[in-house]
Design brief:
With 209 residues, the protein is mainly alpha-helical. The protein folds into two domains: 148 residues, Up-down Bundle (Four Helix Bundle (Hemerythrin (Met), subunit A)); 58 residues, no CATH class. The protein contains nine helices and two strands; from the N terminus they run ααααααββααα. The chain has a two-stranded antiparallel sheet with strand order 1-2. Helix 1 packs parallel to helix 7, helix 3 runs antiparallel to helix 7 and helix 8 packs parallel to helix 9. The radius of gyration is 17 Å and the shape is globular. 33% of the residues are buried.
């Protein structure tokens, strides 16, 4: 995939997530999401915090100053819980502010800075050009996880194909366990991410992201 593609998917996915979350009432925000143990408030808080965290990597690329996504996994999880307890209006404001700040920080990167190496929360060393794809996955997949009318078929054009290719590599599925030649790409993406799908005979892969 190209940087142009990943930035487009990030922008379109962000708009989709914000629009979907923006339609939720206080009561709907408190309802369960598509992720076990998380309300929609948890999903929204996670996506807002993720923009700040990826912003740390963009800062790292721009300045050369090592800036981890999160101080620790425990602090990441605690931050989500704190965020989920905020009033709905504050979560909505955080979502938009963090998304806008991340987009502006990426806009300011030079070609050389885009090639800078940063370290993800999983400890992988990647070029900064990977960060828009990291963010696109978060906003697109979690827009589905809000369980508010968005499915994988509603995600930006081309995103599911790139996601399937990425996840096949990450899951080590060089040879798929079932024939998917005629399967909808959206359903394959749902299966590979461990979300509900309609593929007959597909083995359980477990959750991802």
């Amino acid at each position: 995939m190209t940087l142009i593609d990943s930035r487009r998917w990030m922008a379109e996915g962000t708009a989709l997530f914000l629009a979907t979350a923006g339609r939720l009432t206080d009561e709907e925000y408190a309802a369960p999401s598509g992720l076990p143990g998380w309300s929609r408030r948890h999903v929204a808080a996670h996506v807002a915090a993720n923009a700040d965290a990826i912003g740390n990597l963009v800062h790292w690329a721009a300045t050369g100053e090592p800036t981890p996504m999160y101080p620790s996994r425990a602090e990441r999880d605690a931050g989500i819980e704190r965020g989920a307890a905020l009033p709905t209006a504050e979560i909505a404001d955080w979502l938009r502010r963090s998304a806008d700040a991340l987009g502006a920080a990426m806009d300011a990167l030079t070609e050389d800075q885009w090639r800078a190496e940063v370290v993800t929360g999983q400890g992988a060393t990647v070029h900064a050009t990977t960060t828009p794809w990291m963010r696109a996955r978060e906003v697109c997949i979690h827009a589905v996880d809000l369980a508010a009318g968005v499915g994988f078929a509603d995600l930006p054009e081309g995103f599911n194909g790139a996601l399937c290719e990425d996840l096949r590599a990450q899951r080590g599925l060089d040879v798929l366990p079932i024939d998917l030649d005629d399967a909808p790409r959206a359903q394959i993406a749902a299966w590979l991410t461990g979300r509900p799908h309609t593929l007959a005979g597909a083995p359980e892969l477990g959750p991802w992201l």
